[in-house]
């Protein structure tokens, strides 16, 4: 039986296969985990030049106020996220979180103000549930569309700007988190200066029928290599970025996850539009009083990677358990293993020496500041 | 005598001692290795026991002991430089030498032709 037939394919599936991708099931899609170069080279190339990622499995949703006033769409979105959407200027994008009534995280997402509507990008594994959640909560005031007519790619790395400039357009005036319409290769694209690697770069939404042509042009550039999900994961881990389902989920709150920076003052206690999102009581209280546990960076002392699920203890015998690793692996640019996880408040200060359970042994690991590599966003 | 297992290990057997490593196919499937943990010299394993661990950027995998025996030597070079396993899996990237408990056990393993058929 061919189980792969149940998996969805992105508009770049044929291109991925032609590039020698090793395909794996991911969030209901058949996705490239690595290409011919392999995870290590792909990772290092992205930080040295530019990498192209197929992220078409992610959900692209447009949110349009039925009233025709985009501020009404902003107000509607603010009932779902603890984030300042009304204050988000036209052509700007912001990181956000869908929360639930317990203060847990349903998904993390990007929200962009496109002038006459909002454009939202959500995780692949959550997109159907997110869309249903949005329909149920704000469908009366907003027209919502989940776009399967657009591909999404990310071009990441220090050469991303010059590659786009050489091929199509000077977008050097864009700053980190700017969003604009762009005519690339005669394709009507939406370009944001953002990504998931800690590098400068762009995410590019492309009409499905032109996605392969745009990507082939990018890949013809000598600075650009295709990058799979394997390196995407090691890049985001070095950059200290959360993976939904691993590092954040319905069992973690934004404050426990150390994502306070995503919640602007206007939505906090004393702010003009304080609260008004699911779980606000719990989350706003935690913002003032802290939480019993916290997401932290973790640096194993030896060479052995410490993976998600490893138990963290204060002693080398592993008796005094204070937390769990949620993501861990090898950081090619960090040149060693890197991890993140949740620990008790008492164990959360950078420099705290802990021990991680790996194959029956407890190996020394140190709580450390995130990210593991300096980000290079063009702010 | 060169033998293979269905778990993608190779054994080069001389005078009752097998030099053991992972096959080129296995190394390609695992991708770039970043960490290798080897057994201690003098330890004994049964066939199928977890003798070594390899980690790629993405995941950890066990290397099973292909036959009953005692570890008599390990290749520290691959601990210092795990990429040796990727660059020369069936040569300089060997893992350990196993003194076979029963040399005749090797007869049950795959020969090169049978292994090649297995991995296609």
TrEMBL record, chain A:
It comes from the Bacteria. Residues 13-265 form the GCVT N-terminal domain. InterPro entries: GcvT, GcvT/YgfZ/DmdA, GcvT/YgfZ_C, GcvT_C, GCVT_N, TrmE/GcvT-like. It is an enzyme of class 2 (transferase). Pfam families: GCV_T, GCV_T_C. SUPFAM superfamilies: Aminomethyltransferase beta-barrel domain, Folate-binding domain. Its EC number is 2.1.2.10. The keyword Transferase applies. GO terms for molecular function: aminomethyltransferase activity. It catalyses: N(6)-[(R)-S(8)-aminomethyldihydrolipoyl]-L-lysyl-[protein] + (6S)-5,6,7,8-tetrahydrofolate = N(6)-[(R)-dihydrolipoyl]-L-lysyl-[protein] + (6R)-5,10-methylene-5,6,7,8-tetrahydrofolate + NH4(+). Keywords: Aminotransferase, Transferase. Residues 293-374 form the Aminomethyltransferase C-terminal domain. Belongs to the GcvT family. This is aminomethyltransferase. It comes from Shinella lacus.
UniProtKB/TrEMBL annotation, chain B:
Pfam families: GCV_H. PROSITE patterns: BIOTINYL_LIPOYL, LIPOYL. Residues 17-99 form the Lipoyl-binding domain. Belongs to the GcvH family. This is Glycine cleavage system H protein. SUPFAM superfamilies: Single hybrid motif. InterPro entries: 2-oxoA_DH_lipoyl-BS (IPR003016), Biotin_lipoyl (IPR000089), GCV_H (IPR002930), GCV_H/Fam206 (IPR033753), GCV_H_sub (IPR017453), Single_hybrid_motif (IPR011053). The glycine cleavage system is composed of four proteins: P, T, L and H. Its cofactor is (R)-lipoate. The glycine cleavage system catalyzes the degradation of glycine. The H protein shuttles the methylamine group of glycine from the P protein to the T protein. The modification N6-lipoyllysine is found at residue 58. Keywords: Lipoyl. It comes from the Bacteria. The lineage of its organism: Bacteria, Pseudomonadati, Pseudomonadota, Alphaproteobacteria, Hyphomicrobiales. Binds 1 lipoyl cofactor covalently.
């Amino acid at each position: 039986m061919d189980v792969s037939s149940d998996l969805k394919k992105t508009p770049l599936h044929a291109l991925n296969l032609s590039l020698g991708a090793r395909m794996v099931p991911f969030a209901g899609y058949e996705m490239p985990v690595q290409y011919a170069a392999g995870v290590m080279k792909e990772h290092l190339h992205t930080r040295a030049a530019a990498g192209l990622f197929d992220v078409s499995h992610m959900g692209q949703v447009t949110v349009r106020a039925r009233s025709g006033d985009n501020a009404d769409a902003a107000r509607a979105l603010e009932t779902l996220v603890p984030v300042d959407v009304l204050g988000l200027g036209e052509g700007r994008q912001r990181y956000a979180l869908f929360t639930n009534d317990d203060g847990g995280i349903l998904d993390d997402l990007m929200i962009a103000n496109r002038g006459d509507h909002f454009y939202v990008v959500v995780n692949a594994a959550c997109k159907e549930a997110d869309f249903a959640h949005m329909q149920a909560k704000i469908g009366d005031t907003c027209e919502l569309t989940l776009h399967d007519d657009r591909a999404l790619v990310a071009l990441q790395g220090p050469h991303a700007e010059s590659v786009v400039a050489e091929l199509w357009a000077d977008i050097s005036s864009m700053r980190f988190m700017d969003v604009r319409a762009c005519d690339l290769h005669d394709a009507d694209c939406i370009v944001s200066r953002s990504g998931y690697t800690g590098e400068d770069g762009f995410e590019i939404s492309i009409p499905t029928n032109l996605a392969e042509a745009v990507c082939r042009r990018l890949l013809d550039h000598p600075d650009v290599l295709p990058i799979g999900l394997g390196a995407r994961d090691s890049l985001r881990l070095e950059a200290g970025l959360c993976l939904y389902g691993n590092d954040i989920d319905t069992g973690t709150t934004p404050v426990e996850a150390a994502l306070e920076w995503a919640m602007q003052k206007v939505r906090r206690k004393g702010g003009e539009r304080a609260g008004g999102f699911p779980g606000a009581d719990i989350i706003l209280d935690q913002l003032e009083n802290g939480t019993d546990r916290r997401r932290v960076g973790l640096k194993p002392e030896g060479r052995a990677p410490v993976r998600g699920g490893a138990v963290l203890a204060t002693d080398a015998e592993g008796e005094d358990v204070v937390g769990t690793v949620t993501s861990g692996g090898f950081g090619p640019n960090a040149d060693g293993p890197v991890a993140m996880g949740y620990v008790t408040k008492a164990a959360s200060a950078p420099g705290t020496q802990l021990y991680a359970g790996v194959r029956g042994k407890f190996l020394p690991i140190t709580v450390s500041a995130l990210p593991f590599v300096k980000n290079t966003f063009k702010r | 005598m060169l033998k293979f297992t269905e778990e993608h290990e190779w054994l080069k057997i001389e005078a009752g001692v097998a030099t053991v490593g992972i096959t080129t196919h296995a190394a390609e499937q695992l991708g770039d290795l970043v960490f290798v943990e080897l057994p201690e010299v003098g330890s004994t394993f049964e066939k199928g026991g977890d003798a070594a661990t390899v980690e790629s950027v993405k995941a950890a995998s066990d290397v099973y002991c292909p036959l009953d025996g005692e570890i008599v030597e390990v290749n520290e070079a691959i601990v210092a430089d795990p990429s040796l396993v990727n660059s020369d899996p069936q040569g300089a990237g060997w893992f350990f030498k196993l003194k076979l408990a029963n040399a005749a056990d090797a007869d049950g393993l795959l020969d090169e032709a049978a292994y090649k058929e297995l991995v296609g």
